[in-house]
Amino acid sequence: MNLMLKVSIALFVAATLAAQTPVEVVRVASKVVERQVKLPGEFRPYLGVPIFAKVTGFVEKIEVDRGSEVKVGDLLATLVAPEMQTQIVEAQSKAQAIGLQRAEAAARLAAAQSTYQRLKAAAATPGVVAENDLIVAGKNVEAAEALVHAYEDSIKAAQAQVQSLRDLERYLTIRAPFEGIITAGGGRAGSAGRSHCERCPRSFYGAGVSRGDFLRRPEPDRPCAG
Question: In terms of C-beta distances under 8 Å and separation of at least 24 residues, what long-range contacts does 145-150 make, across chains too?
């Protein structure tokens, strides 16, 4: 009994001494956890488009340079195409020549109609005009009318060709398709600004950058959460 009492007292004393051993503590506080991470990034335009000359010509004047800010419709460059001017003059001359031919055909039609009307009036008196002569005069009128209509169609075709060349002539001025910044230039005054093809150099490269653009950081592919 005395032994058990002694053991109990020894354990009580040891526990009391252990409880009195000092321990380091910290005060618990609520804070925002922050972490800084350095990642590679690059700025890219929100919208970029290559601009090519739609017609073949030579660069006469360049209005902008790399880094220039442009708005929709701003003039970027002007091209010249001497052969196009020659084609326009030739098409206009052809249209005028056909117009003169049409005028001559209209005069012959008027003469044929006059002859037919006189013969028709004379044919009212039996035996004055042969029936075959009246038929021939009528056929001449029909042929003259057909010729006039043919010249009119030719005039329309020639005028359409002139207008088509005029429309192409407007492409000699290169304008900005949207508001943005010129990021590259591929032409100088006097150089060839050829139309777009695989072997043709670019005349300009325009890129529009939105004000709210973000810094894009490339990331490896990873599965979507959820």
Answer: 145/109, 147/105, 147/108, 147/109, 148/102, 148/105, 148/106, 148/109
- Can you tell me the distance from the alpha carbon of 201 to that of 53, in angstroms, rounded to the nearest whole number? 10
Express each pLDDT in 122-179 by its tens digit. 888 887 778 888 888 889 999 999 999 999 999 999 999 999 999 888 888 888 888 8
Output the CATH code of domain 40-81+172-226.
2.40.50.100
| Euclidean distance between CA atoms 202 and 194, whole angstroms | 8
Q: Which residues contact 202 (CB under 8 A, 6 or more apart)?
A: 50, 51, 52, 184, 186, 187
Compute the distance between CA of residue 181 and CA of residue 61 in angstroms, rounded to an integer. Answer: 19
Q: Please give the span between the terminal C-alpha atoms of the chain, in angstroms, as a whole number.
A: 69
Calpha distance 203→50 (Å, rounded): 9
Which tens digits make up the pLDDT trace of 173-207?
888 888 888 877 655 555 554 444 333 334 444 44
Q: DSSP strand E in the chain: where?
A: 47-51, 58-62, 69-70, 75-80, 173-175, 180-185, 204-208
- Residue 151 to residues 133, 146, 148: CA-CA distances in angstroms? 27, 9, 5
Specify the pTM.
0.56
d(CA 34, CA 129) in angstroms, rounded, equals: 116
8 A C-beta contact, residue 81 and residue 56: yes
Nearest to 172 by CA among 191, 190, 196, 193: 193
Residue pair 46/208 in contact (Cβ under 8 Å)? The answer is yes
